[in-house]
Write a structure and sequence with these properties.
- Strands 1-2-3 form a 3-stranded antiparallel β-sheet, with no helix packed on it.
- It folds into 2 domains: about 5-95, DNA polymerase, domain 1; about 120-300, hpI Integrase, Chain A (Orthogonal Bundle), CATH 1.10.443.
- The chain has helices at about 5-15, 20-40, 60-70, 75-95, 120-130, 135-150, 155-160, 190-205, 230-245, 250-265, 270-275, 280-285, 285-305; strands at about 165-170, 175, 185.
- The longest helix is centred in the N-terminal third of the chain and has 21 residues, at about 20-40.
- It has 13 helices and 3 strands.
- With about 300 residues, it is mostly helical.
- Strand 2 and strand 3 form a beta hairpin.
- The chain is about 55% helix and about 5% strand.
- The chain is globular.
- Helix 6 runs antiparallel to helix 8 (about 190-205) and helix 6 (about 135-150) crosses helix 9.
């Protein structure tokens, strides 16, 4: 039941939309779970099997939503599962396999807006300013990664996929392949270029490789010389924060938030920040205005004579 349609949908996401493997797995898991629910309960709780997606109506979706609520699924989980089903039927409708999308307009649980965490400018400087220049490969690499996170706002998935020829040191530019395989060119700071050069020089002597800008191969590697993983980067950034004496968790995504927040606080245009971050929609970038508004309100309450 509907397995053939699901297979076609997943191929469409992979080939036409260039979604990641993790996203593909999430879509497949969500829709298979929905199919299993229908096979077990039938249409809207009746003990009948549905052999074609065109037979599924709004009542079936609402029954599944009630089932998820009854199992006390997290709000974010329910939202993702219904969103997956909605996308699936949107595809089926586009392919004329169903007459309408039964998941369209289904009310979802209200999501509490969680403001992103970020470092202050002082904390960012504390993280990146090392009084004594390190001489070991691990520290030089880790500081180069931290400098790129804060200096460009790239995602951890983008950083681990960087190759040596993605860096143009003379033009101080970085080529990044983002979500949906969309390429963008980012400016990089003098500090980032210096950190990268120190790291690559040490890497060539320790690993005996040909790591130079413009060459093939991964930019960031582990001590065995293979491409570093996202999991390792998360662990490294956490430890880098501890080593710097910061009393808050340092996470790659927090450095991305810090990059955007500090640009906005300095007067950067929101659309320029959107381009730098690689957001497809301005609404995704607008969450940083809430962070800055929160800061503005604190300043107002502290400084305005009539605020208290």
């Amino acid at each position: 039941m509907m397995i053939q349609e699901l297979t076609q949908f997943l191929k469409y996401l992979e080939i036409e939309c260039s979604v990641s493997k993790n996203t593909l797995r999430a879509y497949e898991s969500d829709i298979r779970e929905f199919i299993a629910f229908l096979m077990k309960t039938g249409q809207a709780g009746e003990q009948t099997k549905i052999e074609h997606p065109d037979k599924i109506d709004r009542n079936a979706i609402q029954s599944y939503l009630s089932y998820l609520y009854a199992r006390r699924k997290a709000r974010t989980t329910i939202e993702r599962k219904i969103s997956s089903i909605r996308s699936f039927f949107k595809y089926l409708k586009h392919e004329n396999l169903v007459a309408s999308n039964p998941a369209a307009g289904i009310p979802l649980p209200r999501k509490h807006r969680k403001l992103p965490g970020f470092l202050t400018v002082k904390e960012a400087n504390q993280l990146l300013d090392i009084k004594q220049q390190p001489d070991d490969l691990k520290t030089l690499r880790n500081m180069a990664m931290a400098e790129l996170f804060y200096g460009t706002g790239i995602r951890v998935s983008e950083l681990v996929n960087l190759d040596l020829d993605d860096v143009d040191a003379s033009e101080m530019e970085l080529r990044v392949l983002g979500k949906g395989r969309k390429e963008r060119i980012l400016p990089i700071t003098n500090n980032a270029v210096e950190r990268l050069l120190l790291y690559l020089t040490k890497r060539r002597s320790v690993l005996n490789d040909n790591a130079v800008f413009g060459a093939n191969g991964p930019l960031f590697v582990n001590l065995r010389g293979t491409r570093i993983t996202a999991r390792s980067v998360h662990r490294i950034m956490k430890q880098t924060g501890v080593n710097a004496g910061l009393h808050k968790r340092v996470h790659p995504h927090e450095l991305r938030h810090s990059f955007a927040t500090h640009l906005l606080d300095s007067g950067a245009d929101l659309r320029a920040i959107q381009e730098l971050l690689g957001h497809a929609h301005l609404a995704t970038t607008q969450k940083y205005t809430h962070v800055s508004l929160e800061k503005l309100m604190r300043i107002y309450n502290d400084k305005h004579p009539r605020a208290k």
